Amino acid sequence: MISDTAIWSMIAGLGIATYAIRFSFLGLLAGREVPESVRRGLAFVPAAVLPALIAPMVVGGQSGADPERLAACAAALVAGLLTRNVLAGILAGIAGYALALVVSGQI
After folding, report:
1. pTM for this entry
2. What is the model's pLDDT at position 55?
């Protein structure tokens, strides 16, 4: 069993690490001009974060990729490509998942 001291030391260490990571961008770069190449690269971060969060839920898990999740992913992908709207993709994914659950008889 892990001791209380070890747990609190881990929490404190993770807090310090998180602060250091944020300070490296906010504190050290404040008031400085960011190079154009970095600025262009940072523009792709929001577009990369959502798929990185969703992909493990679609293909991962204990049972692997189930048809309902794949249907939701396909619906979100098609809606996102057609509309170029993140919200439309999210809503289409929710609707596709719900429809797949109804069709498979789970709801």
Report:
1. 0.58
2. 83
